[in-house]
Amino acid sequence: MPKPRRLAVLIDMDLLEPRLLGRILAKAADYGAIGIRRAYGNCTTLSDWGACLQYRGIKTARNYGSGTNAADITLIIDAVDMLRAGKADGFCIVASDHHYTGLIKWLRDGKVPVAGIGRRAAPRDLREAYRGRFTAVEDLTSEAKVPDGPCWEAERGLIDRIKAAINCSRKPREKYVRLSLVRDSLGDFEARAYCYRDLVSLLKWYDQEFKVKDGRDIGRPAGDYVRIWPSSGQAAVVSTPCSPWQS
Predict the structure, then answer these.
(1) What is the CATH classification number for the domain harbouring 156?
(2) Do both 126 and 202 map to the same domain?
(3) Is residue 241 one of the residues assigned to a domain?
(4) Which alpha helices (DSSP H) does 57-197 contain, by range?
(5) What is the pTM of this model?
(6) N or C: which end of the chain has fewer CB within 10 A?
(7) Helix (H) or strand (E) holding 159
């Protein structure tokens, strides 16, 4: 079956963490060219999602009605409407709720490509409805393929900016840099704008790119230290304010 040229990625926000969005979208891109990105849920109670959705270029759908299943119903109605209007020719459903099982079977019966991403603990009937095209979010890693596009340019730009700040802050032949110096080099950088509680959380999430250690574990004073992990390569220094120790 050919890959969709207008893949719709429909995300149920209720059972997912915002920080997983990058890896989810990277995996979804394996199934086809993403044309629509839409999220469903009660945004008044899911306050952590606002900046994350904007950063990833994902629109929030307005629920049809209210109640505990309003987001589920809205996602299902939208999927049917998108298909019939020719706006999408394939779907990636990001959800772990059994309510979507009927939609998935209906799409597959109509020969419409459909894949799923959700929790490993999702109901068995939901996972089996995808017929081998279900991926558990727990299995996604930071090594997932990063597709092209403006959103992903921002993703790569974020990593390169942090690497540049580390390079600017470290002394010659020094591997680990005190995190406070990196923060200073980053200037007005705000981790919350990228869906992370703080800079340490962000660095630990990209564990294929950075390593964070307590200074006492590397023979330094107490505090957080970071280095660029050798396997990720050293980023070229870009226009980021540098310390006098730039090498």
Answers:
(1) 3.30.420.610
(2) no
(3) no
(4) 70-84, 101-109, 124-129, 150-169, 179-186
(5) 0.64
(6) N
(7) helix 150-169
Structure tokens at 153: 């340019």
Using alpha carbons, select from 209, 215, 204 the residue that is nearest to residue 229: 209
Q: pLDDT confidence of 129, banded at 50, 70, 90?
A: very high
Of 107, 139, 171, the position where a domain reaches its end is 139
CA 155 to chain CA mean position, Å: 9
Residue 246: inside a domain: no
**Residue 1 covered by a domain:** no
The string of pLDDT tens digits covering residues 4-32 is: 889 999 999 877 777 788 888 888 988 98
How big is the chain, counted in residues? 247
Q: What is the distance between the alpha carbons of residues 76 and 232, in angstroms, rounded to a whole number?
A: 40
Tell how far CA 201 is from the center of its chain: 14
Domain identity same for 199 and 80: no
The domain total for the chain is 2
Which residues, in sequence order, are CB contacts of 156 under 8 Å at separation 6+?
146
Instruction: Specify if 121 maps to a domain.
Output: yes
Q: What residues does 225 pair with on adjacent strands?
A: 178, 213
CA distances from 203 to 16, 19, 162, 170 (A): 20, 12, 9, 17
Report residue 44 as tokens. Answer: 């008044």
For residue 179, the enclosing domain spans 150-232
Tens digits of residue pLDDT in 130-178: 999 999 998 886 544 444 444 455 567 788 889 999 998 888 888 899 9
Measuring CA to CA, how many Å separate 60 from each of 34, 116, 150, 165, 229? 16, 19, 19, 34, 36
Give the helix, strand, coil percentages of the chain, each rounded to 5: 40, 15, 40
CA 246 from centroid of its chain's CA atoms: 32
